[in-house]
Amino acid sequence: MVATPIGNLADSSPRSIETLRAADLIACEDTRTTRTLLAHHGISARTVALHEHNERSASKSLIAALREGKNVALVSDAGTPALADPGAHLVAQAHAAGIRVSPLPGASAAAAAISASGFVASRFLFAGFLPAKPAERRKALEALDLPWPVVLYEAPHRVRETLADLLERFGARRELVIARELSKKFEEVARLPLGEVAAWLDARREREQGEFVLVLAPGEERPAQAVDAERVLDVLLEALSPSEAAKLAARITGRPKSELYRRAIERAK
């Protein structure tokens, strides 16, 4: 599991370059993107595609290669593999087959944005991408009013709609960090109240382009028992599949994912 730069190729660690150079196969989300990185470092290893549409089938051949004693490196287009990117299924299959899995840490857009947010908290929730459909997105936001920062990823063509939904749900005074194009030439990190984010976007047309990480400021501290796992699960099931709802509800409430998944299946029936 090799973390790769999220924008600036100079962020490649010596260990990551050495590992990629020694790999027999490099499984990548998009071979064209990864070849740019490999060419930059003069690496000619064979690449194979492993993305959301072929992960299960590609994992079978990669597990077979690992059983033959080959070294397989897994990368995503940018950042840490299997974090809002493909790769988790392959890693799970490797564990099940008794194959050694080794994480090579490095760049993470979520960690970078949290470190630049200035929000003081002992924990944060990584919620990844919200649902694309407006009604489902608003439902998902209902479960994210938490006493710690919430990290979201968003695509440029949806960022304005998501910011409007955040404003409606959390109010004009709640602060948000907008981290745009992290580590790239046009990087911007802005912390401002939700009531000012639309004007910030409007100030420069290019601000609606690029990759976005949003960090929502913590809400008011509440007793632990105030986070009702059953209610959170019910809200998330209106917008997400049982498995995704259970996973996110477990992160929010601290309840076991397996228990919440069983309850989600019962509700789905």
Task: List key phrases describing it.
Methyltransferase, Cobalt-precorrin-4 Transmethylase, Domain 2; 3-stranded parallel sheet; 41% helix; 11 helices
Describe this structure in words.
With 269 residues, the protein is an alpha/beta fold. The protein folds into 3 domains: 88 residues, Cobalt-precorrin-4 Transmethylase, domain 1; 108 residues, Methyltransferase, Cobalt-precorrin-4 Transmethylase, Domain 2 (2-Layer Sandwich); 45 residues, no CATH class. Helix 6 runs parallel beside helix 7, helix 9 crosses helix 11 and helix 10 crosses helix 11. The relative contact order is 0.12.
List the helices and strands and how they pair.
Blueprint: H1 14-22, E1 25-28, H2 31-40, E2 46-49, H3 55-67, E3 72-75, H4 88-96, H5 109-115, E4 125-129, H6 134-142, E5 150-154, H7 159-170, E6 175-180, E7 188-193, H8 197-203, E8 212-216, H9 229-237, H10 242-253, H11 257-268
Number of domain units:
3
CATH class group of the largest domain: Alpha Beta
Please name the CATH topology of the largest domain: Methyltransferase, Cobalt-precorrin-4 Transmethylase, Domain 2
Q: Give a quick account of the main beta sheet: strands, pairing sense, barrel closure.
A: 5 strands, mixed
The number of helical elements comes to: 11
Radius of gyration: 20 Å
Distance between the termini: 37 Å
Low-confidence stretches: none
Biggest sheet strand order reads: 4-5-8-6-7
Structural class: alpha/beta
In N-to-C order, the SSE pattern is: HEHEHEHHEHEHEEHEHHH
CATH architecture level-2 label of the largest domain: 2-Layer Sandwich
Q: Based on CA inertia axes, which overall geometry fits?
A: globular
**What number is the mean pLDDT?**
93
Helix content: 40-55%
The CATH superfamily of the largest domain is known as: Tetrapyrrole methylase, C-terminal domain
In terms of DSSP E residues, the strand content is: 5-15%
The tally of strands reads: 8
